[in-house]
Amino acid sequence: ASVSEPAQKCCTENIQPFLTSILEELMGPVSSGFTEVRALFDKEVNEIIQDFQKTNDMTRLKENVDQLMTLPFNSVKMEPCYLKVNLLQELLQDLKSRFKVYHIDFVIQRTQNFMQELMENAVYTFEQLFSPSQQADSAKVATTIEKVKLRVLK
């Protein structure tokens, strides 16, 4: 009871007025990281579509879809997404000194984990909605892939 009032006052005067601007500042790198995840998924699926349109090979299509499933674990391809979030390092340094925010690396790592999880969910959903082995008409495969991609991105 004796700590509650001073703590409430401290939060009201020294932290609450800055929360909105802090969140806006932090959301820039986070949003750009998640946008990069979306763009990477879009690019990879477009490459599958283009390859299929060139080859019309269902076996190769299955291999490409299987390879897409490994995308969340491909550190080279996911790196540009992760780099967007690394900007948080600089932003959080300022918060560390002003508000005693610690464990900056943990915040960045968790954000990158969420990005990987989002990609895992996207490729899993894509796989569930599109199965190359169930495609009877190869003329409609590219259109079907595009529709599934748009559904996943939605």
TrEMBL record:
Residues 9-154 form the Niban 1/2/3 domain. Pfam families: Niban2 (PF26086). Coiled coil: none annotated. Belongs to the Niban family. This is NIBAN protein. It comes from Loxia curvirostra (Red crossbill). The gene is Fam129a.
